[in-house]
Amino acid sequence: MENFKNAVAKQFEALKAMGQIYRTDVSKDLLWETYLASFPEGTNPMFRKRAEFDCSSCHSFVKAAGALVAINENLELVSIWDFPEDLGYYSVVSAELSKLVKSKPISNIFLHTERTVSRERDFEIIIGKEKIWNHLYIQIPDANYCASYEIGTRLSDTQALHDVFIRSCREITKESVEIALDLISQNSLYRGEESKPVLEAFLAAKLSFGQVPEDRQDNYAWSNALKIHPTVAKMRNTAIGTFLVNLSEGMGLEQAVKAFETIMSPTNYQRPVAPATKSMIESARDKIEELGLTSALERRCATLADISINDLLFADRSVKSMLSGNVFDALISSASDKLPKNLDKIEEISIDTFLANVVPNASSIEVFFESKLIPNLVTLVAPVNASAGNLFKWNNGFSWAYNGSVADSIKERVKQAGGVVDAAVCCRLAWHNTDDLDLHMIEADNFEIYYGNKGRISNCGGMLDVDMNVSGETTTPVENIFYSKPMSKFGAYKLFVNNYRYRSSQNPGFEVEIDILGKTSFFSYSKVVRNKESIPVANLIVDESGIRLEPVLPASTSSASRTAWGISTESFHKVNALMLSPNFWEGSGVGNKHYFFMLDGCLNDDAARGFFNEFLKEELTPHRKVFEAVGSNMLAPSIPGQLSGLGFSSTQRAQILCKVSGKFNRLLKVSF
User: Fold this and answer.
1) Which residues pair with 494 in a beta bridge?
2) H-helix or E-strand containing 68?
3) Which CATH superfamily is domain 410-560 in?
4) φ, ψ of residue 631 in degrees (nearest 5)
5) Fewest Cβ atoms closer than 10 Å to its Cβ: which of 399, 575, 632, 654?
6) How confident is the model over 346-366, as pLDDT tens digits?
7) In this predicted model, what pLDDT tens digit does every residue of 305-320 receive, in sequence order?
C-alpha cells in the first residue's frame, strides 16, 4: 500500500507540473465502488468487519481526489491514476479508475477547502505490536486551496468562462473576425481600434481551436480559458463579440455596424467612413476595371470651359466667349446693390415661369445671397480625364456637391449625421463655426427636449437625435429634433437655439429648417449668438385644425453680412451661368432636379466630394459600401474659375431674389 500511496502522490505532482488540475464529471460514489471492485479476487481480504482497503481515509481520498486530471500538450486527459510503475494488483485498480475518470468530460477546476486530502498514515497497537496503516494522501498547493465561502463563486465563474469561450470559438466565424479587423484597419468601425488586440488574440485562439479534433475541443477550451485574457475568453459576451455574432449569423454588414455603434455609444451617429471589407474593395476594383471606369474616379472642379452652351439655361454675356468663342461686350449693371425695404411688394413667380418667360430675355442676372442660403452653396465636379467612361446614371461625367459635402440641403446634412429626416415634423439646425449651439423644444406639457435627454422620446412624441460640436470638432455641424407622428398634445411648442459654449466670432449665426408634413420653412440668424444666449425661432401651435407655424425670429436679424466661399452674404452677386443639375442635361431626367446659379467669384472653401452613391449606375450598386469611401476620398480641389454658386432642389421649398436686366429691369422673388 505504501508504494501505491507514493505512486499516487508522485502522479499528483506530475499533474501539477502540467498546469491546471481539473475534476472530471464522474460521481464520487461510482469512483468508490469502482475502486473497491477493481481489486482482483483475494487481494482485498476482510479485516475485522470490512475489506482491508475499505478504510475511512482512503474512502475520503477517492471521493475527493479520485477524479483529478490534467491536460497534456496533445490535449489528452492524464489522470491521477496514470502512474507508470508496475505495482501488481494496485496497477489493476489504478487502470480501472483511470479508464473511468477519463471516460467523462471535465466538470471544473479542482479546488479543496482543506490543506490535505485524507491522512497520510495511522498507528495501531495490535497484540502488543505497533501496526502502521498507510493511506492515499496528498497535500494541496495554494493554487487549489479555497476557503469554503469562496468555492462556489470561483467554480461558477470558471465554469462560465469556459462555457462562453467554447461558444465563442464554435459560433463566431473566422470570416467575421477578419471583417472586423478589416474595418478597423480602414478606421470604419467606431472605437474599433480599442478592440484590435483582443480580436487578434481571439482570432489566433479561434484558428487553434479549429485545428483541434472535435473530441478534444472541450479540453482545449478548459486548457486555454484561464490562460488567455478574460476579454478574449468572453468574446461572445463583449460589444465587439456581439458584432461578430451578428455577422456570423448572417446579419448584413451595415446593420451589424449600426448595432455595434449603438452599443458602444448611443450618442454617436457618425462613422469615419462607410464600412467595407478587403474582399469588398477587391470586388469593387475588379468591377471598375471591367467597366473601364478607373480613370473616371479622378475628379476636379468643373469650369465654364467644360460646359456646352446647350447644357445651360443662361450664360452671362461676359462669359459666353468661354462657351462659344464669340466675343460680347461686358454688361455693366446699373441697378442698385441694396435690397429693397419692402419685400412683400416684389413680384413672386415660380422657377418654371422664371425659366420659361424671364431668362430667355435676360442679358444679366444677379441673385441676392442671404445668409440662410449658405447651406445651398454648391460646386460642379468633372472628371479629370474628359474621355473617361461614365460612372453615373445619366449620360455625362459631371456631378455636384453641396456645402458640407452632401448631395442636397440641410436635410441631407442631418441625414448624413444619422438623424431622422422622414418624419411628420423635423426641426433642423445648421451653423458654420465651432460654437456649441443647441436646439431646444419646450413642448405643450412644458417638457424640454434638448441635449440633456438626447435619444429619449418625450410624452408628446419628440426626440433630439443629433447633437454636435460638444468639443467644437466641426465647422459644418447640425442638430435635429423630430416627431415621427404629429404631436400628441395640443398647445404651443416653442423652438429656440441656445449657445451653450461660445468659441468663435467667425461665420456667426445659424439656419433652421422646420419641415411640417412635407412643407419646409426657413429661418436665418446672422448675428453672433453670445455665450448662454437663447434665440427664439418659432412656435408650433397644435390644435384641432392641425399644426401651424408662428415665426418668432425677427426678419431684421438676417441682415448682418458674412463671407462664405469668397463672396459676401446679404448682397447681390452676378450669375455667370444658370443650369440644371447634370442629371437633367441633354434631355435626361434621372433623380431629383436641381437648379444651379453659378456665381462670379464663388470659390469652394474646401475640396468638393467627387460623387455620391445615389449618382452611380446600377452596375456599381452592389459595391456601394466601397464607393461610399471612394467618393469621400476622391476629392476635387478648389481652383480659380470653378463653377460654384447656389443650388436649389426641386424637392425643397425655397425662395431667392433675382435682379434681371434685359429689355426690362425687374426684381423678382423666385420660388422653388
Assistant:
1) 442, 539
2) strand 68-71
3) sav2460 like domains (2.60.60.30)
4) -60, -35
5) 632
6) 789 999 999 999 999 899 999
7) 888 888 888 888 777 6
